[in-house]
């Protein structure tokens, strides 16, 4: 499957990592403004702090920065912090928005000295624009082609020193010549529950939500290691507490609220449980092919593969094998089911008959 054609998280998923307009507006208010306020990602934060402090002491523009990791971990927030720490303006765009080299040339030619250019989903930029970016990053120069055919000429355009901050969810799709031109590369890891508790407490304070330690821990434990999801769950629990409780978020209130929104104690939502339920109840734990599994849950193949499976695999509830998708013992335990004898197999004839349900 081409990643460029992969669907984003379905918009009605409370635990989806994609951000809609409401999320973006709230996140803007909740984002830390300084590196010292940024919670988690200790290694990346310390390394980036050295890069920025050294650049400020030299009076120079900071090196280009590449941030990789899953959605919702703080790549955009860090790019804004970089601009703030360097006392520089920031220009925000994305790879899919740059389809022609001319699009990139227009952006680069309007940058001011020291400005930060944040390029989200940089791996989805077009190849001609990518090749123009090589020279811009290294020599702060681009060649603008004027005319067509034999009469075409290249006009060199000098650029002021700037800092490119690239963000990607798929660092492996970046061509090596582009990846090697970044002076600093940071990989964003999923957050530990204790770090997410701090995120929830901080966001609750900014949203003026009364929350105790147990309530924050309950929300953090269901947030899939992602601050964006933690903030989203906090807002929905706040709504529940406001309407059906006394407005304060406790463990019991958070648990009841997230039960209403179908987010279980491990962070699985309706789609995740539907995939596991089909795999276990209909196919005996697998192996079963992705297309068959998608039909069983009434979703597109790409939705199951790109939206549900990554978290299930990371949680150790599902495994991808050459023969198809297989449920792990933890999946049976999570749904309160007993695995069939001899390790399962499909309900259509056992594990030896994979022709009907192969990948």
TrEMBL record:
Entry-linked InterPro entries: AAA+_ATPase (IPR003593), AAA_lid_4 (IPR041445), DNA_helicase_Holl-junc_RuvB (IPR004605), P-loop_NTPase (IPR027417), RuvB-like_N (IPR008824), RuvB_wg_C (IPR008823), WH-like_DNA-bd_sf (IPR036388), WH_DNA-bd_sf (IPR036390)
Presence of keyword Transcription regulation: no
Pfam annotation, one family: WHD_RuvB
Family annotation (SMART domains): AAA
Chain spans, region Small ATPAse domain (RuvB-S): 192-262
Residues where ATP binds: 30-31, 72, 75-77, 138-140, 181, 191, 228
Gene3D superfamilies per UniProt: 1.10.8.60, P-loop containing nucleotide triphosphate hydrolases, Winged helix-like DNA-binding domain superfamily/Winged helix DNA-binding domain
GO biological process, one term: DNA recombination
Sequence ranges of Gly residues compositional bias: 343-359
GO CC terms: cytoplasm; Holliday junction resolvase complex
E.C. number: 3.6.4.-
Main location class: cytoplasm
UniProt subcellular location: Cytoplasm
Ranges where the AAA+ ATPase domain occurs: 61-194
Reaction(s) catalysed by this chain's protein: ATP + H2O = ADP + phosphate + H(+)
Region described as Disordered: spans on this chain: 1-21, 338-359
Description of how the protein assembles with itself and partners: Homohexamer. Forms an RuvA(8)-RuvB(12)-Holliday junction (HJ) complex. HJ DNA is sandwiched between 2 RuvA tetramers; dsDNA enters through RuvA and exits via RuvB. An RuvB hexamer assembles on each DNA strand where it exits the tetramer. Each RuvB hexamer is contacted by two RuvA subunits (via domain III) on 2 adjacent RuvB subunits; this complex drives branch migration. In the full resolvosome a probable DNA-RuvA(4)-RuvB(12)-RuvC(2) complex forms which resolves the HJ.
Job of this protein: The RuvA-RuvB-RuvC complex processes Holliday junction (HJ) DNA during genetic recombination and DNA repair, while the RuvA-RuvB complex plays an important role in the rescue of blocked DNA replication forks via replication fork reversal (RFR). RuvA specifically binds to HJ cruciform DNA, conferring on it an open structure. The RuvB hexamer acts as an ATP-dependent pump, pulling dsDNA into and through the RuvAB complex. RuvB forms 2 homohexamers on either side of HJ DNA bound by 1 or 2 RuvA tetramers; 4 subunits per hexamer contact DNA at a time.
PANTHER family in the cross-refs: HOLLIDAY JUNCTION BRANCH MIGRATION COMPLEX SUBUNIT RUVB, PTHR42848
Name of the protein: Holliday junction branch migration complex subunit RuvB
Gene that this sequence comes from: ruvB
């Amino acid at each position: 499957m081409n990643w460029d054609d992969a669907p984003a998280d379905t918009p009605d998923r409370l635990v989806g990592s994609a951000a809609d307009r409401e999320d973006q507006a709230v996140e803007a208010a909740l984002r830390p403004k300084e590196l010292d306020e940024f919670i988690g990602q200790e290694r990346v934060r310390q390394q980036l702090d050295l890069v920025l402090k050294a650049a400020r002491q030299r009076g120079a523009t900071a090196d280009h920065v590449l941030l990789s990791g899953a959605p919702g971990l703080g790549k955009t927030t860090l790019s804004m912090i970089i601009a703030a720490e360097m006392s520089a303006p920031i220009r925000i765009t994305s790879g899919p928005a740059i389809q022609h080299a001319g699009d990139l040339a227009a952006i680069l030619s309007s940058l001011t000295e020291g400005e930060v250019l944040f390029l989200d989903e940089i791996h989805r930029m077009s190849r001609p624009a990518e090749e123009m970016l090589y020279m811009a990053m290294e020599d702060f120069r681009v060649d603008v082609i004027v005319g067509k055919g034999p009469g075409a000429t290249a006009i060199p355009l000098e650029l002021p020193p700037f800092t490119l901050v690239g963000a990607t969810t798929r660092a492996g799709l970046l061509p090596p010549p582009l990846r090697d031109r970044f002076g600093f590369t940071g990989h964003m890891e999923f957050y530990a529950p204790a770090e997410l508790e701090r995120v929830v407490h901080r966001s609750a304070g900014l949203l003026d939500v009364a929350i105790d330690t147990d309530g924050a821990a309950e929300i953090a434990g269901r947030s899939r290691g992602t601050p964006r999801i933690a903030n989203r769950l906090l807002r929905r629990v706040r709504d529940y507490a406001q309407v059906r409780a006394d407005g304060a978020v406790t463990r019991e209130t958070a648990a009841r609220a997230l039960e209403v929104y179908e987010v279980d104690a491990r962070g699985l939502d309706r789609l995740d449980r539907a995939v596991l339920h089909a795999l276990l109840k209909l196919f005996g734990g697998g192996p079963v092919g992705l297309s068959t599994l998608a039909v069983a849950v009434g979703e597109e193949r790409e939705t199951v593969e790109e939206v549900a499976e990554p978290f299930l695999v990371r949680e150790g509830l599902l495994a991808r094998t050459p023969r198809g998708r297989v449920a792990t013992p933890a999946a049976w335990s999570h749904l309160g089911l007993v695995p069939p004898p001899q390790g399962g197999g499909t309900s259509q004839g056992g594990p030896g008959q994979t022709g009907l349900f192969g990948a």
